[in-house]
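== Sequence entry ==
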Amino acid sequence: MDLSKYRKMAEELVAKMTVEEAAGQLTYEAPAIGRLGVPAYNWWNEALHGVARAGTATVFPQAIALAAAFDVPMLEKVADAIATEGRAKYNAFAAEEDRTIYKGLTYWSPNVNIFRDPRWGRGQETYGEDPYLTAELGKAFVRGLQGNGEHYKAVGCAKHFAVHSGPEALRHEFDAAANAKDMAETYLYAFEQLVRAGVGGVMGAYNRLNGAPCCAHPFLMQKLREWGFEGYFTSDCWALADFHLHHKVTSTAPESAAMAVKAGCDLNCGNVYLHVLAALQDGLVSEEDIRRCCVRLMTIRYALGMGQETEYDGIGYGEVESPAHLRLARRAAERSMVLLKNDGVLPMERKKYRGKTIAVIGPAAASEAVLYGNYCGTGSACVTILEGVRKAYPDAHILYAKGSHMYKESDEDVAAPADKLSEAVICAKRADVAVLCVGLDATMEGEEGCAPNFGDSGDKRSLELPPCQMQLVRAVLRTGTPTVIVQTSGSSIVTGGEEGAAAVLQAWYPGVLGGEAVARILRGKVCPSGKLPVTFYKGCGDLPAFTDYSMKNRTYAYYEGEPLFPFGYGLSYTSFAVRRAELRGGRVVAEVENTGGCDGETVLQVYRKIEHPLAERNVRLVGFCRVKVKKGESKRCKVALSPDLLRLVGEDGTPFAYTGTYTLFVTDGSGAAPVALACRAE
């Protein structure tokens, strides 16, 4: 969007403000200025996978699940639906003069940090571990959210800038040490792509980066200028107080306020900017500094339509959790789920189980919490996995046993340890098949202060499930009943059933209709097609320390070990073969044949391998597309490749174009041998 018109309007408005009024607009709870017709506005809002924390809204699958779909057009549709619901709620709230927190149109999403370590509890908010995938999906989310009209439909915000991915317990004081190559190659890539694509906001991170706090970092702010950023910059919530309380780079709140304002932090989520006028009085900032920040904020508000009629004013409250949005949420869940293992027990067709017994077991089976993930709204149409299975198999006898608590030794407060375990064994022994639902929820992995029950401030200490669930998995598998493990999480986990289970389905946090989506996949109404956007590791033993921000031995691009399941992996009920592939201009043209027994979708993935000292083990995803192929048919597919296909980064962080030979690998991620293309760049 061209913001020049709105910037001129903002400059004229701010020129009429007193410096006190301008300073007051720099906090997330911006007060009204009645004499100038400026209504109150609260900047703090979230829309990671649906309008969050403002009552009822369509809850789409968590961000990491949306990433597993590898579906750029679908994610843009999801974000557009979120913006539609956001406008509907905003229009209705404003009519009631409710302008409080979570009621605005500036959404602090998406989270485009790199999920570098599987222990990070907030990794579920990201699009995974690959910079290119993260950038492509992040841009799609922003396009859908912001729209292409005269005004912004809503405003996205790329966070947390930058080099931020745990540990949560240390984030207010932590100094992330990252070299220039890792920053340019991995940590900053998606941010640059989103800024160049026109994201309206950027949020700074809590931590320091190489000694300087990210919300006032000279290097990071310079990067934004280089990339042509024209939006607004906000601190993370209470991050500016960390300057003097924890990072100790300033001594007082006025000094912290001055440091941030002068660096270009326009908005303070917190209360440090209540000291801006004191900083002005002490000569630490100028009136021009304050007005500059205010102009950037008012530019965004005008671009959203402040004081104007917009093309979105007619969006009514009936759009909230509409049938169309719920259908999209279910479709997104179905495309995101990853079949990790299948010995033939799946699909469990309805006719095969007429009169048979299905045991649905596990603490995730009847849980609504596992549908949500963090940063979510409230769904009024939740379908748990147990409910989904009951609906999908009306002719079968369904047995249910919780089996264990999610993380406690006993499920009932005064019961003996493993009090629900024998019931699970009883049900499994009497069943023809067991659907074992285990995993995590947002109380067990997430943000500091939001996930108190397990791990460390929301992070995970181990990739294994809590002992009570590991015990449950072992007990059910010992019965000998064919067992399908359905696992919920926002990250790499180890259930202990990877070898003994007949099938394993990674369901993530699948959204409000997640249980229905699981059941439709189990039954074969939907052929699974998701792919892992992160590496699933066997454990943490061979990973670097959580606090080590070097990319060495992290993610599929640098990991030196043998993964449990690799990045990009995912099985299907059918099979696909890449018959031919060739490089034509900036695209790979490949013929994909469905060689199996049912129609299906897959994700064609293209990886680049360069033999060069600066490439290290650098196998990089450079293109992907989702393709649907009917059984017995072939389809010619065109995969657009990244403009940065031949980009390498020097040790000083300077990118350069590689010339010479390189290899492209084309695969559908099912484990079959990829097709290799020998190429040369002149």
